[in-house]
Design a protein that fits this description.
Elements lengths: L1 E2 L8 E5 L1 H13 L3 E5 L2 E5 L2 E3 L3 E5 L3 E5 L19 H4 L4 E6 L2 E6 L3 E3 L9 E6 L2 E6 L2 E3 L6 E4 L2 E6 L2 E5 L4 E4 L2 E6 L2 E4 L4 E5 L9 E7 L2 E4 L4 E7 L4 E13 L8 E7 L4 E13 L3 E7 L13 E15 L3 E4 L6 E13 L37 E17 L2 H4 L5 E7 L2 E4 L2 E4 L1
Parallel strand pairs: 1-3, 2-4, 3-6, 4-7, 5-8, 6-9, 7-10, 8-11, 9-12, 10-13, 11-14, 12-15, 13-16, 14-17, 15-18, 16-19, 17-20, 18-21, 19-22, 20-23, 21-24, 22-24, 23-25, 24-26, 25-27, 26-28, 27-29, 28-30, 29-31, 30-31, 31-32, 31-33
Antiparallel strand pairs: 33-34
Length: about 425
């Protein structure tokens, strides 16, 4: 075991311990691997460069805090236009920087402190083009950027992580394969758990074989999302189960519970969500095939198919579930079953008896969001430009007087579908 204090780390919350920490990691890697140990203390540090076959163990009494911006690695100088947001694109600017390494663990029960009270700044943990990385049983607080940000990496485990007071996304996996997120608590101002397939590395990289289970997410944005960066790579074999969603305390309701979005040409195939409980989430299910076309020379819609969502319980919702493709580009093979949604008082603001399906804008190239269409002509399920949609045993409850002002369900350009909501059947 390589104790960072044996290499000169102070752990007093004042000295920059980055040099001592890197020295301990270098010695550990030179010995063929092992454990770099942080005993109790507060370690202020610039960027820490983690190497292959190294386990970072942060003891329960230890906190590693991001130091001054001047001590953090500069962002990359890219030779191409990444066509993605800065937070999605840049990975050097981080506390723990994992770059093209393998067999790395970060664990121990201690705390990683972003040490900021605002958004924008270093990522607590960045993982780029790595294999076999496990992040387990640590707490991340006050992250000014994506708390855990991984790109083009595989065989990832994020387990038992507590993310608190994050100012950006909680956990982001961009173009990652064979990843498992479990037993995590995420409290974030932006998306809680977000999968992407962005052009941040200048190439198309799919996000595939990802499972999320037994997590609690509280956010003021989307709780679980595929997108918004959704191309040139795609999404395949994604599953989420046994999770609870809520809003951040003292914040707005999250716009989306489960958000599945292809707007930059991504092909989305085989996505399942089951056993999810949501409270204070505006739109429990939002599925969107759009055509923003970021990073495309000619904007061209991708595809979205084979989505199964089941055993969902939502309370205090205020927008209908939305399944929406494009004219001439229907999304296909979507199943919703055993869904129970209770609409709260806020839903009354969205009950306009004069709203009709022909008044809903297409918003073809707009940023995907459940509020992008404005007022909708129904209160439980809005489905447009879709094929082979199956909705069974969906129970939606709204105050009787409000429910009579417009229908529960609207199907617009929907073919070969069977939709059952509450006690009645609609077929087209």
């Amino acid at each position: 075991m390589f104790d960072v204090k044996d290499f000169g780390a102070k752990g007093d919350g004042q000295a920059n311990d980055a040099g001592a920490i890197d020295a301990a990691i270098d010695a550990c890697a030179a010995a063929g691997g092992g454990t770099v140990y942080f005993p109790s203390g507060r370690y202020l540090s610039g960027t820490i460069h983690v190497k292959s076959n190294v386990r970072i163990t942060i003891s329960p009494g230890a906190t590693i805090a991001i130091g001054d911006d001047d001590d953090i690695d500069m962002i990359e100088d890219l030779e191409y236009n990444p066509h993605a947001d800065n937070e999605t694109t840049y990975f050097n600017c981080a506390l723990f920087r994992l770059d093209r390494v393998e067999n790395v663990h970060i664990d121990g029960g201690g705390t990683i402190d972003g040490n900021r009270q605002h958004r924008h700044g270093p990522k607590p943990i960045s993982v780029r083009r790595c294999t076999s990385v496990t992040i387990r049983d640590v707490k991340i607080v006050y992250a000014p950027n994506y708390a855990i940000s991984c790109i083009d990496s595989e065989f990832l485990v994020v387990d038992g992580v507590w993310i608190e007071n994050a100012f950006a996304d909680g956990i982001d996996l961009d173009g990652c394969r064979f990843a498992h997120i479990s037993n995590c608590r995420v409290n974030s101002a932006d998306d809680g758990i977000c999968l992407k397939s962005s052009p941040a590395l200048g190439e198309a990289i799919d996000c595939a074989h990802v499972t999320v289970t037994n997590c609690h997410v509280a956010t003021s944005c989307n709780c679980f999302k595929l997108g918004t960066e959704s191309g040139p790579g795609g999404f395949t074999d994604i599953s989420i189960s046994n999770c609870t969603f809520d809003k951040q305390p003292l914040s707005r309701a999250p716009p989306g519970g489960i958000a599945i979005e292809s707007v930059d040409g991504a092909e989305i195939d085989r996505v399942t969500a089951s056993n999810i409980t949501m409270h204070h989430v505006s739109c429990p299910v939002f599925i969107r095939l759009g055509n923003r076309g970021r990073a495309q020379k000619v904007p061209t819609p991708g595809s979205l198919q084979n989505v199964s969502i089941s055993n969902i319980v939502a309370t205090e919702a205020d927008l209908p579930c939305i399944i929406s493709g494009l004219p001439g580009a229907r999304l296909k093979h979507v199943t919703l079953s055993d869904i129970s949604i209770e609409y709260g008082n806020a839903a009354s603001a969205h009950v306009d008896a004069t709203m009709t399906p022909d008044k809903v804008p297409e918003s073809i190239d707009k940023y995907p969001d459940p509020r992008m269409f404005g007022e909708l002509p129904c209160w439980a399920l809005y489905c447009r430009h879709a094929e082979n949609v199956r909705v069974a045993n969906m129970q939606s409850r709204l105050e009787a007087g409000l429910a009579k002002k417009k229908p529960a369900v609207v199907l617009d350009d929907v073919i070969r579908s069977v939709v059952k909501v509450d006690e009645y059947m609609l077929e087209k």
